[in-house]
Amino acid sequence: MKTSFQVARVMGIPIKLHITFLLVLPLFAFIFASNPAPYGFGDTTPIMEKYFLSLVTTILLFTCILLHELGHSYLAKKYGFKIESITLLLFGGVASMEEMPRDSSMEAKMAVAGPTVSFTIAAICLGIIALFPSFSTTAPMRIIWIIGYINIILAVFNLLPAFPMDGGRVLRAWYAKKMSYVEATQHAAYVGKLFAFIMGMFGLLYNVWLLMIAFFVYIGASEEERSTKISFALEKVPVRNIMTREIVSVPPSWTIEEITLFMFEKKHMGYPVIEGNDLKGIITFTDVHKVPPEERSKILVSDLMTPDVISINADADSSDALKLMTTNKIGRVLVIDKGSVVGILSRTDLMRTLMFLGEQ
């Protein structure tokens, strides 16, 4: 089941809505409809107008969250980093980057860019209210006031040094000037977990939303600390040192029935498809599993294989291979040296290497 759906593209970045966003949209509209002025429209009549204004406010709020993430993304693209997507979900937005900058100055500037956008939106909203005080009680002005107020909260909250939030990334950038990047990440993650614990305690006593945010902050800090350690460990290992050199391939003329039996015999989950000396594609157990058993004798490997093969150079770092697998959501890559296939590297190979290095 798909959990995110693309709805737009801004600056070349896919904008996605997570299923949790679709659930929280009516909830936020209900909250705004229930609260009295100036934080909502509980005193507005008729009821349809109340819920309409609340829905408009909710949509504008999440638009501001999107602009917050676009602030990060704009600067990231300016520095040459690829943004895979921006997803709006239950607690806001997440910009998925191919990799985080190792330069502490870049990371700090990118982290601050989002809150800067939020502060700018707040300043514009409050400026409009100051310019037109006679209209301050109207519904449009109330929406503007709510959006300005929430953007201040959004900016200030994101600047808390709770890694991996924006303030936590600024903290890591500060640590990175004094120690290695891995140590800086560990220190920032520790502070982030501490903030998550404090937020969780307040959440238990006062607000369940804060408790849920604390949970995601703690998980996020733990995951980023782990992924950073793994990435640095694999950077020391060339792909050619851990790849499987014995390439077991299959011809494109085989039927799916034949390759199914072959997979059970060889116990591998993916195979390059080679005809003569030419690489034609790659076929995996996932591809084969999609074909009903009664159809497997009629369909050829050439009909089912993926012709666009994702590969990596034998001299590349293993960390690059992991990024390639993660980005493309695949379990293995072919290894190329001087234009020829010389091996295959799987996630299992990477995990085994991490175990040897003591990182698992």
Walk me through the topology.
Elements: E1 4-10, E2 13-18, H1 19-34, H2 47-78, E3 83-89, E4 92-97, H3 104-131, H4 139-158, H5 166-176, H6 181-205, H7 208-234, H8 239-242, H9 256-266, E5 270-275, E6 278-284, H10 285-289, H11 301-304, E7 311-313, H12 318-328, E8 332-337, E9 340-346, H13 347-357
Parallel strand pairs: 2-3, 7-8
Antiparallel strand pairs: 1-2, 3-4, 5-6, 8-9
Helix pairs in contact: 1-2, 2-3, 2-4, 3-4, 3-5, 5-6, 6-7, 7-12
Mean pLDDT metric: 89
Instruction: State the distance separating the first and last CA atoms.
Output: 30 Å
Molecular shape: elongated
Which structural class should the secondary elements be placed in? alpha/beta
Succession of helices and strands: EEHHEEHHHHHHHEEHHEHEEH
Helix content: 55-70%
Largest sheet: 4 strands, mixed
* Total count of strands: 9
Count up the domains.
2
Radius of gyration over C-alpha positions, nearest whole angstrom: 26 Å
Strand percentage? 15-25%
- Unreliable sequence segments: none
Instruction: Please list the strands of the largest sheet in the order they lie side by side.
Output: 1-2-3-4
The total count of helices amounts to: 13
